[in-house]
Specification:
Blueprint (H helix, E strand, L loop, with lengths): L10 E6 L6 H10 L5 E6 L11 H18 L6 E5 L4 H7 L4 E6 L2 H18 L2 E6 L9 H9 L13 H15 L1
Parallel strand pairs: 1-2, 1-4, 2-3, 4-5
Length: 179
């Protein structure tokens, strides 16, 4: 028998490739911790993207970032980090998520995210929740960071938009491309 006296937890799935994870991602997680009972960061594979960091490394980096966030601010919802294969909506169902969490950086994001949210609601019957990032991260994207690394840009200039643990791996990725 199901205990109906306990409300179902409101679980949000924050899914992405997180290649690499950024401080903007962490900002979205921190803001969402005030809105949901549980946050699950789902690291998925996008077959249309060329990945710079291996999935296991992205998982480890995101776990380290989230652990630091929870140590710095124990108030708010718990956060766990997992990897998944396949469709995001299928993973969302498997963890009983009530919403897909999406970060909005600017008006361009809003247009594309609204289109995706409507499709997810129509096809998979799951809502989306948007969190607007801090203005410091308004034009930060993992794609831009990968491009800077791939084209030999100054990785140290990324210090304000990626955590130190990620910066170290970006330097390694740059150095391996140079050799």
């Amino acid at each position: 028998m199901v205990d109906s006296s306990q409300p179902k937890p409101h679980i949000a799935l924050y899914a992405g490739s997180f290649d690499p994870p950024t401080l903007g991602h962490l900002d979205v997680i921190e803001r969402a911790r005030r809105l949901f009972d549980v946050i699950v960061v789902g690291i998925g594979e996008n077959p249309n993207k060329q990945h710079m960091l291996e999935p296991a490394l992205r998982l480890a980096l995101m776990q380290e970032m989230v652990a630091g966030l929870l140590d710095d601010n124990p108030d708010g919802a718990p956060v766990r980090v997992e990897t998944y294969d396949g469709l995001t909506v299928d993973f969302a169902r498997s963890i009983n998520a009530v919403a897909l969490l999406r970060g909005i950086r600017n008006v361009t994001d809003l247009a594309s995210e609204c289109q995706l949210a409507i499709a997810n609601r129509q096809v998979a019957d799951i809502e989306s929740a948007f969190v607007i990032t801090d203005e410091r991260y308004g034009f930060t994207s993992s794609s831009l960071i990968r491009q800077i690394v791939d084209l030999g840009g100054d990785v140290d200039k990324l210090d304000g938009i990626v955590p130190t643990c990620v910066l170290e791996h970006l330097r390694s990725a740059r150095d391996s491309d140079v050799n």
